[in-house]
Design a protein that fits this description.
The complex is a heterodimer. Chain A is built from 7 helices and 6 strands; from the N terminus they run ααααββαααββββ. Chain A is α+β, with helices and mostly antiparallel strands. The longest helix of chain A has 29 residues, at 56-84. By secondary structure, chain B is mainly α. Chain B has a single domain (7-189), classed as Rna Polymerase Sigma Factor, Chain: A (Orthogonal Bundle). Chain B has helices at residues 7-15, 21-41, 44-61, 71-90, 102-105, 119-136, 141-152, 157-164, 168-185. In chain B, helix 4 packs across helix 8 (157-164). The N and C termini of chain B lie far apart (105 Å). The chains are: A alpha+beta, B mainly alpha.
Chain lengths: 237, 221
């Protein structure tokens, strides 16, 4: 960065002057203040808003155990596929790819195709239409993508429908929260509607907060974490 | 109305359950955070969303504040991160986000000069500011954030490095590259040149060359 320590050229000085002149000096617009105050009020009245103390060691252990569990599921899945495959007996050494080969051959008995809304393989390969979050094969988790998070969360919200919509934001341990806790390990996620998802391939929970005005905040928590890794603002449903 | 508690005391009170403390703290810095969000995002709608994201993140993560930096630095960091995250995630189209806050703020002046009384001069200032903000919206978000904090808001580079969670040299580099890019984009605003004036230098047209032969049908031989 030696060049950046050099004195500014007259051209750069002029740019600095123009930027300083273009500084915004006005107050926050009243409508924004009202909106922020509403959000603050909503946050302040979350009963379990106490700042979480994150046990990093515990989180690491939990993530490690999740990875081990995921690996075990894969191994067991492959083993089961070999056992039930009608013609896998003499081909066990190459059966690491048994499932895909069987699919290519149309042998549904080996591994039923996961339901896919767009008819495509819901794996990572290939282009993914922007308007559809995908079902995670085997785990039955909605898959949300980092680069299309707002879009996928909006679709996820639509997918879970409006059931219990009014109650879900109001009560503590909803069935959805318990389900999310069971899938992900309970965390301090605050109030909202809980949806277990796969976030970029990592187990996570989305918490849809109570809509405030014309917006709704959705926080994404990785399993084992009490701090949101992402937080997006969606139009209210 | 005023709360005499320091920023750090307010944040600590919030963590300990004071339901009003965070609101007081945020209101204290709200206008400046708004200015940063507005200039980083480029338009009021996205700025409001990003500021709300930052507010929620700061509210929920207050317990993780360790006090290594000033509270205001931490708040800026949270809000700028919210802006950058929103830009990255939502792919906000900067080029389309022309500043639309000029009319409502044209009377509020600037750091460098007071608002000119002459309507013509004021219109010229507005036009220039419009072009500066439009150009700012076209440079990469990390460079834009650095320039907003350093050149617009006037924060020291070291403090901006804390806000952006990067090295001082990185901030300088981003500013340097951002200014160079802005200088290219704002070439028409270079000193001594105005937007509606012809470019300096010799005129492109040369004097007419007179024909040595009279025009008309060929003369009969």
């Amino acid at each position: 960065m030696s060049d950046s320590d050099q004195p500014l050229t007259p051209e750069e000085e002029e740019v600095r002057r123009l930027l300083a002149e273009a500084r915004h000096t006005g107050p926050t617009p009243p409508e924004v203040v009202v909106r922020l105050d509403r959000v603050l009020d909503d946050l302040a009245h979350e009963p379990d808003r106490a700042a979480p103390v994150v046990d990093l060691a515990r989180r690491r252990r939990r993530v490690a155990s999740l990875l081990v569990a995921a690996a075990a599921v894969v191994v067991v899945g492959i083993g089961v596929a070999q056992l039930v495959s009608p013609d896998s007996g003499s081909d066990t050494l190459t059966s690491g790819s048994a499932a895909s080969e069987a699919q290519d051959r149309g042998q549904d008995s080996v591994q039923p195709k996961a339901p896919s809304a767009n008819g495509a393989n819901p794996g990572e390969a290939g282009p993914i239409p922007e308007d559809q979050p995908l079902q995670d094969k085997g785990e039955h988790l909605l898959k949300v993508r980092r680069e299309h998070l707002s879009n996928d969360l909006a679709i996820t919200r639509s997918a879970i429908g409006s059931r219990n919509a009014s109650d879900a934001y109001s009560f503590g341990k909803s069935s959805a929260e318990r389900a999310a806790g069971a899938a992900c390990g309970a965390g301090q996620w605050g109030r909202g509607r809980f949806v277990p998802v796969s976030y970029g391939g990592t187990p996570a929970v989305v918490v849809f907060r109570r809509p405030v005005g014309d917006t709704q905040v959705a926080d994404v928590f990785l399993c084992g974490s009490s701090e949101p890794i992402r937080s997006v603002t969606l139009p209210a449903p | 109305m005023g709360d005499d508690r320091s920023d750090a005391e307010l944040l600590a009170a919030h963590v300990n359950g004071d339901t009003d403390a965070f609101g007081v703290l945020f209101a204290r810095h709200r206008d400046r955070l708004w200015a940063v969000a507005l200039r980083t995002m480029g338009n009021p709608e996205d700025a409001a969303d990003a500021l709300q994201d930052g507010l929620i993140a700061a509210f929920r993560r207050a317990g993780s504040f360790r006090g290594e930096a000033a509270v205001t630095t931490w708040l800026h960091r949270v809000v700028v991160n919210a802006c950058l995250d929103r830009i990255r995630a939502a792919k906000v189209r900067r080029a389309e986000a022309l500043p639309d806050d000029l009319d409502s703020h044209r009377d509020r002046g600037s750091l460098a000069t007071s608002a000119p009384a002459d309507p013509a001069d004021r219109a010229l200032d507005d036009e220039r500011r419009h072009q500066v903000l439009a150009a700012l919206a076209r440079i990469p978000a990390d460079q834009r954030a650095a320039l907003v904090l350093v050149d617009m808001e006037g924060y020291p580079v070291a403090q901006v490095a804390e806000m952006l969670d990067c090295a001082v040299g990185t901030v300088k580099s981003r500013c340097s590259r951002g200014r160079a890019r802005l200088a290219e984009l704002l070439d028409m605003l270079a000193p001594g040149r105005e937007a509606d004036h012809p470019a300096p230098g010799n005129p492109a047209t040369s004097p007419p060359v007179r024909s040595t032969h009279p025009r008309g049908p060929p003369e009969p031989t």
